[in-house]
């Protein structure tokens, strides 16, 4: 009987976890590389912001007379884009816990939110192009608006394409050793484009 009691705790100790974790003990080289690359992206967007403030400082009226921006609509889609950062991070956490179905669901939600944001940007570009005050061929403000939002929209589109590839990696029942690193890298990139847009939104829609 004494031997049976001694063996019983050991039996409980070796039971496998229901949801194995895929979180590495240290940051992967891919995640570190993405962070370094995002540092160069920060410098690139800093140059755009510097050009914006330089041109704005030399203008007597900013934005041009007749500019009609839908701040409320842009604000709603800004909230949608920022919210997608939370769903993206939840997808990463679910993937790390081995809950692949939940990770896929959160990834699809993030993909839909990002697509809605890009669609709204296309709508804004078409609408604002009919107004001489925001026509990129007529005013400096219009040129900056289209350049800055266009480059950012391109970055968002790249992130959406990356999410489609992540969905492809989630098709199997088990993940490969490098899957978590890819998820983390894409999430870093997505958080970056969200933060950049918040700065663009306040500069383009609120600074007078």
Based on the model shown, name its key terms:
single chain; 208 residues; mainly alpha; Four Helix Bundle (Hemerythrin (Met), subunit A); elongated
If you had to describe this structure to a student in words, what would you say it looks like?
With 208 residues, the chain is an all-alpha fold. The protein has a single domain, classed as Four Helix Bundle (Hemerythrin (Met), subunit A) (Up-down Bundle), CATH 1.20.120. The chain is built from six helices and no strands. Helix 2 packs parallel to helix 6 and helix 5 runs antiparallel to helix 6. The termini are far apart. The N terminus is likely disordered.
SSE diagram, text form:
Layout: H1 2-13, H2 29-58, H3 71-96, H4 100-128, H5 140-169, H6 179-205
Helix pairs in contact: 2-5, 2-6, 3-4, 3-6, 4-5, 5-6
Quick structural overview:
It contains six helices and no strands. By secondary structure, the protein is mainly alpha-helical. It has one domain (28-205): Four Helix Bundle (Hemerythrin (Met), subunit A) (Up-down Bundle).
Q: How large is the radius of gyration?
A: 23 Å
N-to-C CA distance: 83 Å
CATH class reads: Mainly Alpha
User: What is the assigned CATH homologous superfamily?
Assistant: Cytochrome c oxidase, subunit III, four-helix bundle
- The assigned CATH architecture is Up-down Bundle
How many structural domains does the protein architecture include? 1
Order of helices and strands: HHHHHH
Helix content: over 70%
**Spans of 5+ residues with little confidence (pLDDT < 50)?**
1-18
Q: Which descriptor suits the 3D outline?
A: elongated
Strand content: under 5%
| Overall pLDDT score | 85
Which structural class fits the helix and strand makeup? mainly alpha
Q: What is the number of helices?
A: 6
What can be said about the biggest beta sheet?
Answer: none
Fold-level CATH name:
Four Helix Bundle (Hemerythrin (Met), subunit A)
| Number of strand segments | 0
């Amino acid at each position: 009987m004494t031997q049976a009691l001694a063996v019983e705790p050991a039996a409980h100790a070796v039971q496998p976890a229901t949801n194995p974790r895929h979180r590495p003990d240290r940051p992967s080289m891919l995640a570190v590389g993405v962070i370094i690359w995002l540092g160069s992206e920060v410098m690139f967007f800093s140059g755009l912001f510097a050009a914006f403030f330089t041109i704005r400082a030399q203008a007597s009226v900013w934005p041009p007379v007749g500019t009609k921006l839908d701040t409320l609509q842009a604000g709603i889609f800004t909230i949608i884009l920022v919210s997608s950062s939370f769903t993206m991070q939840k997808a990463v956490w679910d993937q790390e816990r081995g809950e692949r179905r939940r990770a896929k669901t959160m990834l699809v939600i993030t993909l839909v939110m990002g697509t809605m944001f890009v669609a709204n940007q296309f709508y804004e570009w078409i609408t604002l192009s009919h107004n001489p005050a925001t026509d990129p061929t007529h005013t400096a403000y219009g040129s900056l608006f289209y350049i800055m939002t266009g480059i950012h929209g391109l970055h968002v589109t790249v992130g959406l394409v990356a999410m489609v590839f992540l969905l492809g990696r989630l098709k199997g029942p088990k993940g490969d050793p490098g899957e978590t690193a890819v998820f983390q890298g894409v999430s870093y990139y997505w958080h970056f484009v969200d933060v950049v847009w918040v700065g663009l939104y306040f500069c383009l829609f609120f600074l007078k």
